Amino acid sequence: MKLSDINVKLLGRQASILDHEHYKKSAVLLPLVQKNGETHVLFEVRSMTLRSQPGDICFPGGRKDEDDRTPLHCAIRETTEELGVSKASIENVHPLDYIVSDTGRIIYPFVGTITTPEKIQPNEAEVGEVFTVPLSYLLNNPPETYKVKLQVIPEEDFPFDRIVGGENYNWQVRHINELFYQYDGKVIWGLTAKILRHFLDLMKE
C-alpha cells in the first residue's frame, strides 16, 4: 500500500473510543427535586427481586436500546419508566462527563430536575423505594475513600513464553478508589457515588 493511499483513507478521520461499537452503553439521570424549599438529590433503591445488584442505591437509568436515538433519550426514557413520571416533568437536563470502564461499558450521566416529585410512582419490579438527600448535606459532607487493588490473573494457557520475563513478568497492578456517602442509614457507593461526586465538584467550582 502506498503512503498516498494511506493518507486518503485517513484524511478527515475523527478519533473515537477504540472498539466502542462493542461496548455496552447505558445512560442515567441524576434527578434533582425541590423539597421543603430546598434542593434535594433523588436516589433509587434497586428492587430485591432483580438479578443484578439487588438492594443497591442508584440513579434511574439503564441500557441504551436500539430505539433510543441518543443517550439523553435513553436516560429520560428509563427515568419515566422507573419513576412513573412524564417526560414533560423532566426539565433543565444537562450532560455530565461520561464514564468508560475497563469492563467494556460506557455510561452517559445527565443531571435534570423533576418538577412533579409528588407524582412519582416507582415501578415495583425495578425500584424498591426512593429517597432524597439535601444537596447542601452532600456538598458539606465529603465521601469516605477506600482503595481496591485489582489483580492480574492470566488464563492457564496464557503464552508466557512470548513475553519478556515469562511467568515472572512484572504486571502493573493498579487500584481504584471506592467512594462511600452515608445519609440516614443509606450508603451510596460504586458508580453512583462517582457520578455524584463529579456533579458535586461541578457545583463547587
UniProtKB/TrEMBL annotation:
Pfam family, one: NUDIX
Nudix hydrolase domain ranges (all copies): 23-156
Cofactor: Mg(2+); Mn(2+)
Record's keyword terms, sorted: Hydrolase, Magnesium, Manganese, Metal-binding
CDD domains hit by this protein: NUDIX_CoAse_Nudt7
UniProt cross-references to PANTHER family, sorted A to Z: MITOCHONDRIAL COENZYME A DIPHOSPHATASE NUDT8, NUDIX HYDROLASE
GO molecular function, one term: coenzyme A diphosphatase activity
Lineage start: Bacteria, Bacillati, Bacillota, Bacilli, Bacillales
Superkingdom classification of source: Bacteria
InterPro entries in UniProt: CoAse, NUDIX_hydrolase-like_dom_sf, NUDIX_hydrolase_dom
Keyword Manganese: yes
Name of the protein: NUDIX domain-containing protein
Keyword Manganese in annotation: yes
Transmembrane spans: none
